[in-house]
Write a structure and sequence with these properties.
Keywords: Endoplasmic reticulum, Membrane, Signal, Transmembrane, Transmembrane helix. By secondary structure, the chain is α/β, with parallel strands linked by helices. The protein is built from eleven helices and seven strands. The chain has two domains: 147 residues, 3-Layer(aba) Sandwich (Glutaredoxin), CATH 3.40.30.10; 112 residues.
Length: 342
Amino acid sequence: MAIAFAKPSLRPLLILLAISAAAALSDEERVADLLSLQSRSPSGVIHLDDNSIRRYLASAKPPRSFSILLFFDAVQLYDKSELRLKELKSEFSLLASSYIRNNKGSDGEGKIFFCDLEFKESQASFGLFGVNALPHIRFIGSDVSSLKDSEQMDQGDFARLADSMAEYVEAKTRLTVGPIHRPPILSNKQVGFLLLLVAIMTPFAIKKVIAGETLLHDKKLWLLGSVFVYFFSVSGAMHNIIRKMPLFIADRNDPSRLVFFYQGSGAQLGAEGFAVGFLYTIVGLLLAFMTHVLVRVRSRNVQTLFMFLSLAISFWAVKKVVYLDNWKTGYGIHGFWPKSWN
């Protein structure tokens, strides 16, 4: 997504004028400063600004003894879920902390630093790098002289989040990142509490199982569960979860209007998946009703009435699904009569 820059200011000019003042720093001093900043960061990600960019990159003539992987951030875009900025930044932090942990005291320590840059604080630096859209991650190698010549990480390189980012770093630097250390889902206290709770509840659970009084012995629960699994399967719910698709979107031409059905085969909104799943579920329930309930009715007239009613509703539901598929994809689905019927 594109980001809007503020009106031109003198900040880039002031930064360029101040470069000469920072040129006196030696490479060893820069590495020492960066290691100090890294040690003070909880995640190991160094937060940079315009002055830091000038101090550690713009004024440092190549070749440098270190490289930098720079994450461009914008807090004001965190509410744009499609950008996944918060998730990517979290994975970037995992990458940084894992590299530091795996390379502590080794030759790889101090060879690459993981940094971030916030848009509101460092618009001038965004301009120096030529960044106008996010998400954006940039690799500044040790031999890069112009910041705009640094390499942008392709979106495919962070498709698998921290793991694919680690592969990118290893390919560019020939350093070993090592395994990604993700925090445990539960803390030690939470695990201990759960174990205590299980120990207390186990005797009561065994008693219920022996007596056949658990929810797993309830036929209604299994019936509802099977209907839910069927609906989950035919509604594209897994697609919505994996792709993180919204239920609806705002109309581009009229933001006050909501769009629940998106025309085009390239995307599917959550609402239309649930609508199709609901129609399929109706057909499935009516089929189950006709084969398991209606056959037990003694009255032929009642059987006939409900049979035709169920078939009519099923035909209507399938027709709606076919119509939606034709509308979305542009491909028509036609029925053909057998030749013997002509």
